[in-house]
Amino acid sequence: MSDNQQDQKELKRIIEALLFASDSPMSLQQLQTVFPELEAPSKQTIQEAIDAICGDYQNSAIELHQVASGWRFQVKQELASWVARLFTHKPPKYSRALLETLAIIAYQQPVTRGDIEEIRGVSVSTYMIDTLLDREWIKVAGHKESPGRPSLYVTTKQFLDYFNLASLEEMPALQELEALAIAGEMEI
Known about the structure:
Layout: H1 3-21, H2 28-34, H3 43-56, E1 62-67, E2 70-75, H4 80-84, H5 96-108, H6 113-120, H7 126-134, E3 138-143, E4 151-155, H8 157-162, H9 174-182
Helix pairs in contact: 1-3
């Protein structure tokens, strides 16, 4: 094995260990900063190592998955229900109103509270907006140039990470959601 191949193999092992040990997704930039400045591999070299790691886990129960904040190891989707049985705490349940509000922000961003109320046809409670802000799923991206200068809300990387998305483009099209609702498979 050449020195270059040995170096690539060692880099792959280091990156795999970093991603496995991290409690949150790591971006290429974050991975690069772990190395001493003069020894830091290029982002392309790190990406090649990540691609190789993804290949290594292709037939495994876990996968290396990219979300908005970077890369993380996670259980494959088809096994998630089994793993969930290990945990005694139940995931938080969110009201239909909160999820509708979040969906409006995600699909229509940037939006004001007034825009959300107009779409939903009911007022939006401060508690609901505060909950989304506290979870860091939305943030204020500015203020609309209109009377009262209402806040403009957009989704965050934490929103994408929580819903296992790398970008907003991965969200299902509204037409797909409407088709599921019409078929009775889900309510929207």
